User: What shape does this take?
Amino acid sequence: MHSRVESSKPLISIFSLRRIFYLLAFSPYLLLYLSVFLGQQSEFQNLWMLFPCAVIFIVIPLLDRLIGLDHANPDENQKKRLNEGFWYTMLPSVGASSTGVHLDLGY
Amino acid sequence: MLVLPLQGFTLIWAIEVFHTLDLSPGGKLAWIISVGVVGSMVAINSAHELIHRRSRWLQGTGGLLLASMSYGSFKTEHILGHHQNVATPEDASSAEKGQSFYLFLPQAIIRNICCAAKIEKERLAKEGSGFWNRENEFLIWSSVSFLIACMMTIAYGFSGLVFFLGQSLFGIFLLETVNYIEHYGLRRKTRENGTFESPGPEHSWNYSSFLTNMFLFQLQRHSDHHQKANRRYQLLRHLHEAPQLPASYAAMILLAWFPLLWFKVMNKRVEQYATCS
Assistant: This one.
């Protein structure tokens, strides 16, 4: 009985997932580097200069549709944990979540 | 924040690419647009988070990031103008229902700059100082942008200046598109004494998609951001009763650039939320 309760507990909480995925906020810079690299390998270098815009305005909205919504809000305990440490302020200078791993997409 | 050295390095590298790669005029324009769009998405978005913090160091970092996009005035106007006057005709960044993005854009930029200068002038006057003062944030961040423009011109000639101003222009263009989306058609009611009701969840558009909110530090949970401006991004809440967009910002930005389509999709929703509230 006890183990069934344990197995229904999510593996990664949405807050632990977000903690890592906030690193994506800096990834658009990589698109610029990638567009120059890919442009140099291709005959259509001028067209590749628009690669970051194509990802931002076409790929990301499509992925948004695929991945879906995240309506989860932190409760009081989670709020305390989310306020701890420098991770959220000094992103990305600290390691991964120390709050445990369970999977609960919250929607 | 690591974003400041990243933005600085990327800007220098990007102008080097602009100067050295054998691109056609169309390719050069595409590069300027891409650098501006990425700068807006990362630097301006991070700056928005930082200027709401209490630490002066973080606020200053936000100011520098905005200056790298030639929009330092946003720091003052956003905090002391937009957050006070949101969803009223007094706010440069709140679009009226039926106002196209192309009518909104020039007045939003001009009013943002003028409001920032006015706010700083009034603040310094209260402290007994004049406008031309080293405490004037409007002048500080404008000077930083001017300095970057001069350095780019000295290092790369006229093309350096074109690149810096061009990427700034497209970055600001994208920022103001987001501003247009965030409060389009939502208006605070006027009380009997002539003042506006307090801003509530019903005065901003939201969309809680997981991915875009990771890219934008939960910016799409915009109603909660306006409920408490210095609430840190990781604590922002999804408010079910708040107006919801039909798609995430990137798709809505594309829609905003086509006014007839935008009106067709959004005006119905504005009316629906106006009736509910």
In short: The two ends of chain B are 39 Å apart (CA to CA). Chain B touches chain A through 50 residues (CB under 8 Å). The CA atoms of residues 200 and 229 of chain B lie 12 Å apart.
